[in-house]
Amino acid sequence: MISLKTNKILIVFIGIFLVLIVGCSTGVKSDEIKNEGNKIVVEKQVGEAGQYENCNEIKDTKEVQKVKDILDNISWENAKVSMGHPPNYRFYFENTNGKLKASEVIYALWISPNKDKVELVIDSKGKYIQLNKEKSAELFEIIIGKKLSNI
Length: 151
Prior knowledge:
By secondary structure, the protein is α+β, with helices and mostly antiparallel strands. It has helices spanning 4-25, 61-72, 133-144, and strands at residues 39-45, 52-58, 77-78, 89-94, 107-111, 118-122, 127-130. The chain has a 7-stranded antiparallel beta sheet. A hairpin with a 6-residue loop joins β5 and β6 (118-122). α2 (61-72) packs antiparallel against α3 (133-144).
């Protein structure tokens, strides 16, 4: 028969073990995408496939936060995709000092043939998503500065 003292010690060790397990499991996911930086640099495809030039910079804090909110609330699919042509646009987050990108995450953006949706790919993470019409229009207008329907 287990003594009362041994029972109490066993319960304390189980409690500590459970606290450690729960504490360790709430850490950052290894594939989580962090969008750091206080401006967004946007590049447009020009000339030959794979050549890009800067076409927009978003420095407005509210606009940058809106883009972060949209990207943070996406249910990304794990997929390696092969598109028929290079992305129409690319964008990434950068600190305003411009020394280095805030992260190495580069978002590649394709416009759907109907010009009503955008598709995003993060090659380095193997992520893909096609946004619905509403989110596509909102993201595109912030990133590019034009309405998606006018492209």
